[in-house]
Amino acid sequence: SAKRSGRNDFRFYSKDLTVRAQERLTLESDLRHALERGELALHYQPKVLLGSGAMVGCEALLRWAHPRLGMVPPDQFIPVAEDSGLINELGAWVLRESCLTAVVWNAAAALPRKVAVNLSVRQIQVPGLVAQVQGILAETHCQPQWLEFEITESLLLDEDGLVVNALQALRDMGVTIAIDDFGTGYSALSYLARFPIDTLKIDRSFIHSATTDHFRAELVRAILSIARCLNQQVVAEGVETRVQADFLAAEGCQLAQGYLFSKAVPREQLLAMSDACLALGDMPSEPIAT
Ligand code: C2E
Ligand code: MG
Ligand code: MG
Ligand code: MG
Question: Which of 26, 124, 177, 265 could lock onto 269 through a cystine, CB 3.0 to 4.6 A?
Answer without folding.
Answer: 265
